[in-house]
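Support reply, case 0932

Customer input (verbatim):
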Amino acid sequence: MQWRSYRFVSGLLFLASVAGMSFALYLEHVQGLEPCPLCVFQRIGLIGLGLISLIAFLHHPKNNVLKRIYSFLGLVTISWSVGVAARHVWLQNLPKDQVPSCGPGLDYWVDTLPLKAVFENVLKGSGECAMVDWTFLGQSLPVWSLLFFSVLALISLWQLFRKY
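Our regenerated output:
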């Protein structure tokens, strides 16, 4: 299998998604870092990319239109994660007096609010999203997530527009 083949790249995107989610779950369940609502929403796009890439890998379409449809759907889902991670980085870099106050947890919002209101409240961010709980090489987890998601988005974009 060539490293540039559609199937290989789809498998690579799937494995990268699995690795990203595995690391997130490791930080949550082994290191004890409770994910904020924005972190949870970032995972949604990563899981979406992983599922779409797995389907594309297993289906291995011969039709270029189907290849581009899978690539577009993967790009859309990981772009969601890029956007949410960028918002998270922005919240963490706000001056202390402009950080929103901490709100109720995501579980409470899901139980009490309509889905549209849950999305609105989560994307506004809250105080717990502005806290830096973990760093590596001086950068917070949302910065590393933004970098990781951006690389996956660039690979997905290349997969979408490359010549087959």
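We compared this against your earlier run and they match. Two observations from our side: The mean pLDDT is 83. Residues 64-92 form the longest helix (29 residues). Please reopen the case if you see a mismatch on your end.
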